[in-house]
Design a protein that fits this description.
It contains 6 helices and 7 strands. It has 187 residues and is of the alpha/beta class. It binds guanosine-5'-diphosphate and magnesium ion (MG).
Amino acid sequence: MGNIFSRLFQRLFGNKEVRVLMVGLDNAGKTTLLYRIKEGSMIKTVPTIGFNMEQIEVNNLKMQVWDLGGQTSIRPYWRSYYQKQEALIFVVDSNDRERFSTAKTELLSILQEEELKNTVIAVFANKQDLPEAASAAEVSLALGLDSIKDRTWTIISTSAAKGDGIAEGFEWFLNALFSHVILYLHL
Ligand code: GDP
Ligand code: MG
């Protein structure tokens, strides 16, 4: 696992620092995902500083993690952290159908944020190891992802618990961010 991430990050980021914002409702699996990414990698960890914020640095990747939903009062704080993000990961508990609509509302509102207008977006349909979990297609429908226009986005089936899909997610970022660079350079 560590080797895969190291190689991917090296290819993806080279010497350039890339900032990734990971958000989602509480219990979606963000912290578990974070530990998946950390383990076996050459990392510096930065301890949590309140407000349900965690961050890690892996090679040239800086990742910030925030819980959303039911915590509107902390928004001004996390908003100040997410400037100049290049990639957004939105984690969904695919087993928690009751909160799909809350997740949808939170995702739509975060996509409106001015500072996040240029990010590429990967929705992680997490907890796919659970037998009753909604498929990525169901999650996509429930969150209305088809209505996301003029943005580069994808949905990826993951299991943070098992470590499935995470490498694929970052592989997708590799390609998406590369395409963005090409676009910006008008090559
Ligand atoms: P966070 O609030 O988004 O940071 O979520 P956590 O990472 O703390 O995970 C919340 C709960 O879901 C914990 O009990 C995790 O063990 C569990 N969990 C996280 N990811 C998965 C997954 O992929 N599959 C299963 N079955 N459980 C998961
Ligand atoms: Mg957490």
